[in-house]
Write a structure and sequence with these properties.
Order of helices and strands: HHHH
Number of strands: 0
Distance between the termini: 55 Å
Structural class: mainly alpha
Strand content: under 5%
Shape: flat
Oligomer: single chain
Protein backbone atom coordinates (compact mmCIF):
# COMPACT_ATOMS: atom_id res chain seq x y z
CA UNK A 1 0.00 0.00 0.00
CA UNK A 2 1.26 3.46 -0.93
CA UNK A 3 2.03 5.94 1.86
CA UNK A 4 -0.16 9.01 2.10
CA UNK A 5 1.23 11.99 0.20
CA UNK A 6 3.37 9.94 -2.16
CA UNK A 7 1.98 9.49 -5.64
CA UNK A 8 3.26 7.35 -8.43
CA UNK A 9 4.09 8.79 -11.85
CA UNK A 10 0.85 7.32 -13.22
CA UNK A 11 -1.22 9.07 -10.52
CA UNK A 12 0.54 12.40 -11.14
CA UNK A 13 0.02 12.06 -14.89
CA UNK A 14 -3.64 11.22 -14.35
CA UNK A 15 -4.08 14.24 -12.05
CA UNK A 16 -2.46 16.60 -14.57
CA UNK A 17 -4.60 15.18 -17.40
CA UNK A 18 -7.76 15.59 -15.28
CA UNK A 19 -6.92 19.19 -14.35
CA UNK A 20 -6.22 20.14 -17.98
CA UNK A 21 -9.40 18.38 -19.12
CA UNK A 22 -11.54 20.13 -16.47
CA UNK A 23 -10.13 23.55 -17.38
CA UNK A 24 -10.85 22.82 -21.06
CA UNK A 25 -14.44 21.77 -20.29
CA UNK A 26 -14.93 24.83 -18.05
CA UNK A 27 -13.61 27.07 -20.83
CA UNK A 28 -15.94 25.46 -23.40
CA UNK A 29 -18.92 25.94 -21.05
CA UNK A 30 -18.03 29.54 -20.15
CA UNK A 31 -17.35 30.81 -23.68
CA UNK A 32 -21.00 31.05 -24.84
CA UNK A 33 -21.94 32.89 -21.64
CA UNK A 34 -19.00 35.29 -21.99
CA UNK A 35 -19.89 35.82 -25.68
CA UNK A 36 -23.45 36.85 -24.80
CA UNK A 37 -22.29 39.17 -22.00
CA UNK A 38 -19.66 40.80 -24.23
CA UNK A 39 -22.17 41.13 -27.08
CA UNK A 40 -24.69 42.80 -24.78
CA UNK A 41 -22.19 45.58 -23.99
CA UNK A 42 -20.85 45.93 -27.55
CA UNK A 43 -21.58 48.60 -30.13
CA UNK A 44 -24.40 47.14 -32.31
CA UNK A 45 -22.83 48.24 -35.62
CA UNK A 46 -19.44 46.78 -34.77
CA UNK A 47 -21.09 43.62 -33.44
CA UNK A 48 -22.97 43.00 -36.70
CA UNK A 49 -19.74 43.37 -38.69
CA UNK A 50 -17.82 41.04 -36.34
CA UNK A 51 -17.45 37.33 -37.04
CA UNK A 52 -16.31 34.69 -34.59
CA UNK A 53 -16.21 34.53 -30.82
CA UNK A 54 -16.01 37.74 -28.81
CA UNK A 55 -13.12 37.85 -26.38
CA UNK A 56 -13.94 41.40 -25.24
CA UNK A 57 -16.74 43.92 -25.82
CA UNK A 58 -16.54 45.82 -29.11
CA UNK A 59 -16.85 49.30 -27.71
CA UNK A 60 -18.77 49.92 -24.52
CA UNK A 61 -22.45 50.69 -24.95
CA UNK A 62 -25.23 50.42 -22.40
CA UNK A 63 -28.01 51.80 -24.61
CA UNK A 64 -29.72 48.40 -24.82
CA UNK A 65 -29.84 48.09 -21.04
CA UNK A 66 -31.15 51.64 -20.73
CA UNK A 67 -34.01 50.81 -23.12
CA UNK A 68 -34.84 47.59 -21.28
CA UNK A 69 -34.75 49.07 -17.78
CA UNK A 70 -36.86 52.06 -18.83
CA UNK A 71 -39.60 49.71 -20.03
CA UNK A 72 -42.37 49.66 -17.38
CA UNK A 73 -43.46 46.12 -18.25
CA UNK A 74 -40.13 44.69 -17.05
CA UNK A 75 -40.99 45.39 -13.41
CA UNK A 76 -44.48 43.93 -13.91
CA UNK A 77 -42.98 40.76 -15.38
CA UNK A 78 -40.66 40.33 -12.41
CA UNK A 79 -43.53 40.92 -9.97
CA UNK A 80 -45.60 38.26 -11.79
CA UNK A 81 -42.71 35.83 -11.59
CA UNK A 82 -42.20 36.43 -7.86
CA UNK A 83 -45.95 36.05 -7.27
CA UNK A 84 -46.10 32.75 -9.18
CA UNK A 85 -43.04 31.39 -7.38
CA UNK A 86 -44.22 32.45 -3.92
CA UNK A 87 -47.77 31.18 -4.52
CA UNK A 88 -46.62 27.94 -6.10
CA UNK A 89 -44.10 27.14 -3.37
CA UNK A 90 -46.55 28.03 -0.61
CA UNK A 91 -49.34 25.97 -2.13
CA UNK A 92 -47.06 23.01 -2.78
CA UNK A 93 -45.74 23.12 0.78
CA UNK A 94 -49.24 23.26 2.28
CA UNK A 95 -50.49 20.41 0.08
CA UNK A 96 -47.43 18.32 0.91
CA UNK A 97 -47.99 18.82 4.65
CA UNK A 98 -51.64 17.73 4.41
Amino acid sequence: MMALGKKSLANKTFDVFNIVLMFFIAFICAMPIMHVIFASFSNPNRLIAHTGILLRPLGLETRGYEIIFNNPTLFRGYMNTFFYVFTGVSLSTVLTLI
